[in-house]
Amino acid sequence: MSRNRIIYQSEALFTSVHATGDSAGTIPATSVFHLKRVTEVSNNAEIARQNVNVFGKLAALSREVIEEPTVSMDFKYYLADGYNEKALGFVTNGLVSCSSGILANAPEAQRNFYVLTVDEGEDADGVNIASVAGKAVIGVGNAFITNYTVNGAVGEIPTASVSIEASNITFAPLGDTNGFQNPAVNVSAAGSPQYEGLVLLPVATETGLSVQVLRPGDIVMDFGTGSLQMGGAVLDGMTSASTKQSAHIQSFSLELPFSRTPQKKLGSAFAFSRELEVPIDVTLNVSANLGDIDEGSLRDLICATSESRNVTIKMYEPCDNDGTAKEPNLIFTLKGCSMDSQNMASTIGDSKTVELKFMSQIGGANDTDKGLFISGQF
Amino acid sequence: MFGRVIYDKENVYLDGDKIIGITDFDAKVGFVHKPLTVMGTGLIGQVIDGEITRGFSFSRLVNNMETGILLKMENEMPASFKYESSNEITKAEEWVSDVSKLVSYELNCSVGDIPTSKFSFDCYGRIKNEVSTKNTDFNGFDDFYVARPSDLTFSGINSFYTNRLQSLNYSFSIPYKKRNFIGSYFDPVPVLFSPIEVSLKLEFELDDASAAISTDSICENNFSGVFSFNKCGTEIRKFKIENAKLTDYSIAGAVGPAATFSCTYKTYVNNIEDLKKLVVL
Fold first, then answer.
1. Does B226 touch chain A (CB under 8 A)?
2. Which one of A289, A325, B42, B232 is separated from B224 by 20 to 30 angstroms, measured CA to CA?
3. ipTM of the complex
């Protein structure tokens, strides 16, 4: 039956561990993961064409596609226990950098994404894909994550936003079967054909996570024991916070960019790889209402050794943010970061605010002192 | 009054045929004047003292009709550049060369750009500007197919291995020597001096240069292969190089971009017929 509209209840987002699957491009359901708690999905395809204008003809002879079209997808989900992060290829053991697999150019770094749409009025959650008619899938092939951002704020459920870039996008009506052509293209073969193998989707289910969602009141940030070298805001975790009022954090944004450069060559319509642009800077922006201030001078920062601190963001289960019941559901640790800016503002009526920016760089796969480390209950 | 003359009112003709796919045209004529000074008076005038340099070149998108010019490259062909008025319905003029010969050809293909080829000609005989008639032939565009960088394939015994080709430059120049003689009105006669050099320059993103380049094998290094532009199953253009020797290579790296390496190969042929066997397949 034709749809009048598609709303969120009818959609589910999946990702597969590999883009290519086996040699034929077949990807079983066991290699595909349903991304849970997704709240937004958008996809975009842009085709760069070059006009072919020649002597003797005013209008272009043709508009040739000289470069690979750009396919992008953005989605957002509520943070939970690291399940989605693991499904996206991040390392979530907290022991090595979360991007170690991606940096090592492991096959998991390149993946596919699938947006399943079921019939109007049906929940995509729990639907039997093999038997329900009226399904369609938007497949995004040869995809790489280009940005991962975690946001937390007073009054808002903490979320993660992910951006990807890909080589191909397909649109496949499914009928009453499970199985659609792999959207990935074989960039190493002449003509870059699309893989013939089929992708099978598992059943989408929102169960299986250790928590429904995390709450802003259960987030604890620790900025390390040392005060800011230039003085200023007192932050949670600092030694001075035991005798002074620390700033009341209102929001934070932790951004991990994975900018990629498409590697092109003559004879190939698609980029044969998308290599990471290094070095990679990880940025933590914090916005807070200022409490007490620590003494210090900007000159002290200039003449001192470079600051390096570890900032930890722990997200607990509801009403368990002292860690007595169990370990945090999700922990983000930014190691080896230093403060880049501290901006204060006062206005009539509102509290004095402070905006801080911390930055670190992603270390290699074996670097345990620098980078972003993620650990979760999943 | 002509008004503004733009590309849709410009056409190039070679040996009577309109050349489709041209993106630019450039003609130059130069005269060498010698001042005459004599005793008792000083400067009495100027005279032409030397060969009148005449030539033109045009760039063209690599296409399926390109071989037509190359197959008659040894011919002395009339050429013209016709331009028409945008203001008046019938007004047109032509820059005409009665005799012209192809002296060089260069094909460039790089990632992100439509491949182009440049043809350069020397002119002999009369050069003139004359009133002409407007072009009335608008056919030929439907059968004109342009190559794309992704359409390039290479088959050769000494392949690129895992290095990624970013650009190629394939060129030849025909070494005509101009013979002047007394009474020739500064209009030399071209004489072909062999050999004819064919050059191929390749630029890669570096992956494994040692497999492709080895100083130990300079004496045995024979680079051969066929380059072909195939657009969705339709062959657009095909050319090759045979028994080419490596003449130079370079490797470069910097913070940020990928490391690159480039290499140049050259081969030689005796005459134009042998040249045609390389550049037109």
1. no
2. B232
3. 0.76
